[in-house]
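stage 2 :: seqdesign
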């Protein structure tokens, strides 16, 4: 029979302690600590270990973050300072992959949007992270606060395998778009730039990849036009692209949503896709396969990106380097459909 919960002042349920576990298991509090924290170089009989774990389960006991910090010398929190980005499918998938990957190393992943009114320096009063992840550099006052907290700072922009900055992996999607269109015979390309300043970090690197690939393929500079998520605006952009001499015949869109707007604009104008205008997006969102025509797109390697970030954090915390040549999922790839 389960031990009844204790109630403290105000009738609130009192959180079980290591002392409660020790009393129920008939062992010392030190033994409970050794078992719960899996302390190295402590030989605990298996029957005793199982008795402690059973008592902890019965009481619903978990060590507090403060207690774990006393044992290990650091907290288990990795704090991500998230820029003012819209949480679309790509960002949401990355956050989910990071959460799962950090959990495998007994680290708790916490996200703090930087658009909140609370300044970064105030965070350390309520949370003491083991590591801080950020996409942008900090002010001197913020850096001082991070250093005083003892947290390790990891700038995601500097993360990447083979000593390549992470931006190069964003640029790769643009290069893949151009290479696919060039193989299909398109020589004059346009770039559908997003009408959203919040995605500038991604857009500028993807466009850089498109420009670099055009230069490498001997193609003219891509015609960059801002396209909002309306058929009318996309139709106006298509008129400009097709009025050029020679006409633009292939469009690299910032992402699938912008690409879907271009497809809607093409339908409005009666422009045949892909015969008159080929379109390729990025992200492979579910709607991409349902568009008319179905959208060709680049599927980003979110899992590999997350693992690179986790490796960088573990290197900072434990001083280890990830194994060279460690397996990673397949690289970014084209999902071939009918639009390009």
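stage 2 :: out
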């Amino acid at each position: 029979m389960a031990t009844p919960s204790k109630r403290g002042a105000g009738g609130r349920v009192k959180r079980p302690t290591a002392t409660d576990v020790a009393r129920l298991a008939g062992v010392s509090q030190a033994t409970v600590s050794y078992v719960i924290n899996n302390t190295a170089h402590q030989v605990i009989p298996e029957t005793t270990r199982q008795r402690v774990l059973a008592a902890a389960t019965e009481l619903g006991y978990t060590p507090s973050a403060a207690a774990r910090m006393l044992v290990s010398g650091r907290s288990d929190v990795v704090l991500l300072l998230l820029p003012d980005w819209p949480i679309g499918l790509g960002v949401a998938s990355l956050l989910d992959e990071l959460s799962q990957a950090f959990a495998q190393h007994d680290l708790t992943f916490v996200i703090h949007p930087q658009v909140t009114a609370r300044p970064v320096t105030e965070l350390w009063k309520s949370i003491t992270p083991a590591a801080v992840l950020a996409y942008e550099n900090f002010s001197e006052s913020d850096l001082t606060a991070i250093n005083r907290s003892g947290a390790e700072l990891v700038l995601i922009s500097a993360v990447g395998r083979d000593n390549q900055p992470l931006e190069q992996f964003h640029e790769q999607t643009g290069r893949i778009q151009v290479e696919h269109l060039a193989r299909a015979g398109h020589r004059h390309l346009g770039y559908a730039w997003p009408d959203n300043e919040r995605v500038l970090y991604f857009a500028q690197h993807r466009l850089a990849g498109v420009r670099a690939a055009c230069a490498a393929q001997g193609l003219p500079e891509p015609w960059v036009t801002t396209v909002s998520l309306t058929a009318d605006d996309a139709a106006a952009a298509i008129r400009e692209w097709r009025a050029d001499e020679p006409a633009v015949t292939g469009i690299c869109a910032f992402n699938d949503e912008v690409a879907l707007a271009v497809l809607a604009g093409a339908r409005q104008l009666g422009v045949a896709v892909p015969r008159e205008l080929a379109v390729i997006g990025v992200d492979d969102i579910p709607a991409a396969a349902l568009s008319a025509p179905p959208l060709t797109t680049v599927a980003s390697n979110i899992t590999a990106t997350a693992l690179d970030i986790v490796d960088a954090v573990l290197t900072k915390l434990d001083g280890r380097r990830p194994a060279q040549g460690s397996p990673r999922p397949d690289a970014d790839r084209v999902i071939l459909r009918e639009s390009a």
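stage 3 :: structure notes
- The longest strand covers residues 77-82.
- Residues 36 and 53 are 7 Å apart (CA to CA).
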